[in-house]
Amino acid sequence: MVRRRYVILGLGAAAAAWPQASRAQPSERVRRIGILMNRREDDPEAAAQIRAFVRGLDERGWKLGRNVEIEYRWGAGEASRYRKYAEELAAHSPDVLVAAGGTAVGALQQATRTTPIVFVTTTDPVGRGLVASMARPGGNTTGFIQFDFSISAKWMELLSQIAPGVTRVAVIRDPAEFSGVGELAVIQAAAASRGVEVSPVDVRDERGLEGAIAAFASGPDRGLIVTGSGSAYRSREMIIGLAARYRLPAVYADRFDAMGGGLVSYGPDRVEQFRVATDYVDRILKGEMPSELPVQAPTKYEMVINLRTAKALGLTISPSLLATADEVIE
Length: 330
Description:
Radius of gyration: 21 Å
Strand order of the largest sheet: 9-8-10-11-12-13-14
Number of helices: 12
Largest sheet: 7 strands, mixed
Order of helices and strands: EEEHEHEHEEHEHEHEHHEHEHEHHE
C-alpha cells in the first residue's frame, strides 16, 4: 500500500509532509499531530470527520501550514494495519496523537507510553484497560467515548416501534471486538422484555455474512440490528443490500448507514466528536497533561429515518417517531 500524508484544506487535500514544516512563520513553532483513523481513506464519513477536526483546530487558532501539521494513517477496520501505522506515526515524534476507535488506541499505546493520545469513537476504555478511570484516566491517554452500551437497548426499541411484528432479530456484530459482547448483552435484555428472540450473526467475511443473513431471512417476522463494529463498517453496502433483498427491517448504529439506504440509525454524532476532541488537543498542545483530563461521554445522539426504504419495505413510520428524528430522508 502506498502511504501518503495529507493536510486537509476545506473539501480538498494538499500533500504535506512533516519535514516541510519550515513553511510556517519563523516566529511560530510548528506542532505535529498524528491521526490513526479506523476508516478507509475514501470513506465519506472519514472525510467529514477530518473536516470537522481541522475546523475545530482552526477555531482554536491552530492553522494548517502555519503552526500545525497533521499526518494520517488509515486502519480501515483491519487489525493488521494498526500496529504498523501506530509505529510509523510514533516514530515521527508528534506532539499529540489522535486515535479513532479502541483498536487504534491500543496500537498507539503499544507504540508510545509518553506521547499524549486523545481518542474518539471508542467504547468502554476503562473495561478494555486503555485508561484507569473516566474521571482520572492516568497515563498518556484520554478522550471521548463513542457511547455507553445502554444505548444498544434503543436499537431494539426502535425496531419494535417501526416493525412491531418482528419476533426474531439477528444482531450483526464482530465477536473479536471488545464492544460486541456488551452490545449483544444489552440487546438481549431489551429483546427478552418484548418476547423477541435474538440471534447473533458473527461477521468474519462477506461470503459467510451473506449466507448467514440469507438463512436467517428464510423465516417469518425477522429483523436486523447492525452494531457499529469495524467488520459491519467494511461490509456496509452488502448489509444494506441484503436487508433490502430479503425485506428485513434493520436498525443501524451509524447515520451514514441510513443515508446509504438503511432503514433507520441511532447513535452519537461521530463527526461532531472529532471537532469536540480538538479542545483536548488544544489544551495538551498548551501544556496540560492527558492524565488530568477526564474521559468524556457524548452529549448528542441522532436518529435518521429513511422513508424511501420504509416505503420499499411496506412500513409506515408513525408521525410521533418522525417528529423525534433528527433527519428524515425522503
